[in-house]
Amino acid sequence: MNTSATPAWPLPTLTLREGALWLEETSLEDIAQRFGTPTYVYSRAALESAFAAWKQALAGRRALVCYAVKANSNLGILSVFARLGAGFDIVSGGELARVLAAGGRADKVVFSGVGKTRAEMRQALEAGIRCFNIESAAELERLNALAGELGKQAPIALRVNPDVDPKTHPYISTGLKGNKFGVAFADALALYRQASRLPHLRISGVACHIGSQLLDPAPMAEAAEKLRDLVEQLAAEGIALEHIDLGGGLGIRYRDETPPSATDYLAPLLEVFAGRNEELCFEPGRSLVGNAGLLLTRIEYLKPGETKNFAIVDAAMNDLARPALYDAWHEVVEVRPCAASAAQYDVVGPICESGDFLARGRMLDVAEGDLLAILSAGAYGMTMSSNYNTRPRAAEILVEGSRALVVRERETVAELFSGERVAN
Ligand code: LLP
Q1: Number of other CB atoms surrounding residue 19 within 10 Å
Q2: Which of 114, 154, 163, 294 has its CA 20 to 30 A from that of 185?
Q3: pLDDT at 372
Q4: SS3 100
Q5: What separation in Å is there between the alpha carbon of 249 and the centre of ligand 1?
């Protein structure tokens, strides 16, 4: 690797200084030394600039950016977005509790998800959230009944399934007919009429989300046109909406993808709704946090194999599941790069599964004890981690200039089984 100039990583606040990686004004080697590995490390400046790109793209339009908490739900990150004025898209009572604990405002929360329980609905009604994104007729009835019991009116949007192909990984496409998400487009009008007759609901909007890691703005623009037609039909029937929620989905660069900027992604959508007054809501997750974070890990062993070499690191599929789950590519960078005698490695963890890899077939010049940074790990990294093999979950650090804040302590083994009992 060329150490004289900083390569174009997808994380702009990551730079090479005196031969090693720094995030903002903080050395990754120092972080590893102080807090150990594996550790997730996030750049506050990168979070803020990703949010600013969305705000700028929406300037002049009444709009609310509701950060999709599932992408990264650490309180440190939520509080950064809360301070920037973000709303939040949640999918569980747990996520609502996190948002409130981090200083987020309930009246800027939208609640998505196909399986909201009564307890979660009650919690959200009592908190006074902005909107329930309803995904079925049964959910509509349940919410109406519960709101009645609590003497409240529940604000709702129907999440409609526009049946467009988002052209992304099948596991993360959500807007096609065969998906469990949303209500069928053809049923939406009838369901709105039904909702308008239910006394404890207040129709607030319409929502859709077609998938994640979208690299082409066209499918979303197609979905937006369908939504606009529906909004016009509803208006003609006297059902006026306050907001239109266009979901999340904007992709990021992991390897060599060329995702649209927030401005280019949003331009065709703003065009579709030009001249309409409803507030536009969005639920971005990955595009706000994905490239603001990395996973710092240390090489435990190098193991030359018969057909390939392995770099066995102290992070594993329990820390970052995306490679095992989606065969996802994450860039791997040596924290102190040198390219003298690079060889090809699979970067693997210590877990007892052949699927436990973080990267395959990478050219690295490494030795036992070296540090690696797994890039683009800010979204769906820590939130999808597990304790498989009784591995305590990683620490999380938020870098702000030269400060490194522990926003989550490394778990201890004792914590892992503190709620368990020995059977007599
Ligand atoms: N809104 C709804 C209703 C969603 O289901 C999602 C993501 C989002 C917003 C945020 O989408 P984003 O802007 O992050 O694309 N674990 C997978 C991604 C699953 C996405 C699930 N829904 C991964 O690691 O790629």
Answers
A1: 10
A2: 154
A3: 98
A4: helix
A5: 6
CA distance 308 to 364: 13
Q: For residue 280, what is the enclosing H or E element?
A: strand 279-282
From 81, 91, 283, mutation site for ligand 1 pocket: most ligand atoms within 8 A of C-beta: 283
* Cα angle 285, 290, 295; round to 5: 135
pLDDT (0 to 100) of residue 240: 97
Domain containing 141 — which CATH number? Answer: 3.20.20.10
Peptide bond into 170 cis (omega under 30): no
Contact between 234 and 190 (Cβ < 8 Å): no
- CA 331 to centroid of chain Cα atoms: 18
CA of 71 to the centre of ligand 1 (A): 7
Closest C-alpha among 249, 217, 319 to residue 68: 249
Tokens in use for 204?
């607030």
Q: Pairing state of beta strands 357-364 and 343-348?
A: antiparallel
According to the model, what pLDDT value does residue 2 have? Answer: 39
Identify whether residues 147 and 271 lie together within a single domain: yes
The rounded distance, in Å, linking the Cα atoms of 347 and 361 is: 8
What pLDDT does 6 receive?
A: 64
The residues that are catalytic are 352
Query: How many CB atoms neighbour CB 420 within 10 A?
Result: 7
How far is the centre of ligand 1, averaged over its atoms, from the C-alpha of 341 (Å)? 40
Domain boundary, last residue among 251, 284, 317? 284
Full domain range(s) for residue 371: 14-43+290-416
Q: How far is 81 from 266, CA to CA, in rounded Å?
A: 20
Count other Cβ atoms within 10 Å, centred on residue 304: 9
Show which of 266, 284, 302 is a domain's final residue. Answer: 284
Q: Please report whether residue 204 resides in a domain.
A: yes
Q: How confident is the model over 81-139, as pLDDT tens digits?
A: 999 999 999 999 999 999 999 999 999 999 999 999 999 999 999 999 999 999 999 99
Same structural domain for residues 146 and 208? yes
List pocket residues of ligand 1, CB cut-off 6 Å. Answer: 68, 71, 89, 112, 172, 174, 209, 212-213, 247-250, 283-287, 322, 326, 379-380
Q: 5 C-alpha vs ligand 1 centroid, how far in Å?
A: 34
Atom 5 of ligand 1, nearest CA residue:
209
Sites in the chain below the pLDDT cut of 70: 1-7, 168-178
Residue nearest to ligand 1 atom 19, measured at CA:
172
Number of domains in the chain: 2
For a ligand 1 pocket test, name from 158, 212, 288, 326 the mutation site with the most ligand atoms within 8 angstroms of its C-beta: 212
